[in-house]
Amino acid sequence: MASKKREVQLQTVINNQSLWDEMLQNKGLTVIDVYQAWCGPCRAMQPLFRKLKNELNEDEILHFAVAEADNIVTLQPFRDKCEPVFLFSVNGKIIEKIQGANAPLVNKKVINLIDEERKIAAGEMARPQYPEIPLVDSDSEVSEESPCESVQELYSIAIIKPDAVISKKVLEIKRKITKAGFIIEAEHKTVLTEEQVVNFYSRIADQRDFEEFVSFMTSGLSYILVVSQGSKHNPPSEETEPQTDTEPNERSEDQPEVEAQVTPGMMKNKQDSLQEYLERQHLAQLCDIEEDAANVAKFMDAFFPDFKKMKSMKLEKTLALLRPNLFHERKDDVLRIIKDEDFKILEQRQVVLSEKEAQALCKEYENEDYFNKLIENMTSGPSLALVLLRDNGLQYWKQLLGPRTVEEAIEYFPESLCAQFAMDSLPVNQLYGSDSLETAEREIQHFFPLQSTLGLIKPHATSEQREQILKIVKEAGFDLTQVKKMFLTPEQTEKIYPKVTGKDFYKDLLEMLSVGPSMVMILTKWNAVAEWRRLMGPTDPEEAKLLSPDSIRAQFGISKLKNIVHGASNAYEAKEVVNRLFEDPEEN
């Protein structure tokens, strides 16, 4: 019978325990790239392995493999780890482990071990008695029960209502939920439609004030949370958050007796009830909980259709930067590779770095002779800064980049971006990537500082149009910081339209805005004022259809007056209007 193994280039694929056990029968050295299903093998090391395979020419005693940790019991300690791990097996015994894509170290280790195998085969030396290294970290004992054998996770839906969002209670509610041992698995901010409210709250549809409730629930922003019960080894306890403001660990005198009388099944229900917990915290009026499996499924299908896929992914942002020479000469080639590698470009801008900024980004080269020349180059013209998003994005981008110097890249990582885009001007990588998630967050905030602007959807927009506009807003990368429906008074209108109060059409504007509620929004992203104005399009919908056919006004506008949306003209106006309409518009 043919072996279940299959060769992908030079590495054997090991994706279950039986194939792992079979691989350990290999004679000689096997170099194993241990990877996670969500990020894949370390492609940056493959050129080195191919080079070693060709140069050493020892097919009988040198083997390469990739092993998927998710499906192999032996590799359980390596699950959910971002950093590449390489194991060295000699005649079935794991004798060495190297963490990280350290090409020189791996290269040296392979050459030394193969040299030993040659000498042993020639009778020139006895086989060293290497101790088999433990795969379990000393500080992270592996549970006897495999995660895949644990009980199926149960989910609840929490709906943080519009009044809680407006009163800035969102962070408090989320903190209390997580502090009690629950896990917020996913989050979605939205303005619920009437159809959604009627559907999701059908069980109370016969109540007398249901229409008023529907109006309230569609009046502003809600947060939809998917909440799980947390680890069964650390369940959320009833007393984690007392009713009074006492310390979290403080217990009342009769609690031990109460716990002793509860059966295991009763204890599980008591501890796992998110509804009861929020009632004890006096937050139930601000946050509805849905725990019925069928209704939870409806919410998941509506707001989290890709939940299972997203839960298995680790979406990360990183800052990428093309140095001036590369940006000037080969920008399109780099952007094409970024797209082909499934990165999403969230933001991009040209930036001429200050000397201080250049020194911060080039800190790893500060002891090199060419450091001053590098800083001069970095400040000589525009660089291209990008915010990239991808599953395991930070580590994946670092692997694509390769090493810090061209010399090392050409020798060990000829397929890396460093080698591909090497330039004569400097011996360094022409691309940059953040070295940690903390650094990425800090650098993104520096180069792409957030800005808020006012967005207004006018009263004549239908509910379907409002829903479509909000979808366009989100797809454009805006964060809905605050949203509320308002019947605008003349005083409020004057604050929103300060430049047109004396115009002939101002009375018509007041009349148009008074026919129903407007949806007033705080929209947040980098360069928000300009981006929102671009997304709206020209004031006249007819002109918008010609000049910006994908804009909101081109798609939904009727006339200059009923052009569906409005926005602040500049950053100062945006800040003034937002502060007046929302008083203290802190983000939840």
TrEMBL record:
GO terms for biological process: cell differentiation; spermatogenesis. Its main location: cytoplasm. The keyword Repeat applies. The active site is at 282 (pros-phosphohistidine intermediate), 566 (pros-phosphohistidine intermediate). Residues 230-266 are annotated as: Disordered. One of its GO terms (cellular component) is sperm flagellum. It is found in: Cytoplasm. GO terms for molecular function: hydrolase activity. Gene3D superfamilies: Glutaredoxin (3.40.30.10), Nucleoside diphosphate kinase-like domain (3.30.70.141). SMART domains: NDK (SM00562). Residues 1-119 form the Thioredoxin domain. Keywords: Cytoplasm, Developmental protein, Differentiation, Disulfide bond, Hydrolase, Repeat, Spermatogenesis. ATP binds at residues 458, 505, 533, 539, 553, 563. PANTHER family: NME/NM23 FAMILY MEMBER 8, THIOREDOXIN DOMAIN-CONTAINING PROTEIN 3. Belongs to the NDK family. Probably required during the final stages of sperm tail maturation in the testis and/or epididymis, where extensive disulfide bonding of fibrous sheath (FS) proteins occurs. In vitro, it has neither nucleoside diphosphate kinase (NDPK) activity nor reducing activity on disulfide bonds. Exhibits a 3'-5' exonuclease activity with a preference for single-stranded DNA, suggesting roles in DNA proofreading and repair. Monomer. This is Thioredoxin domain-containing protein 3.
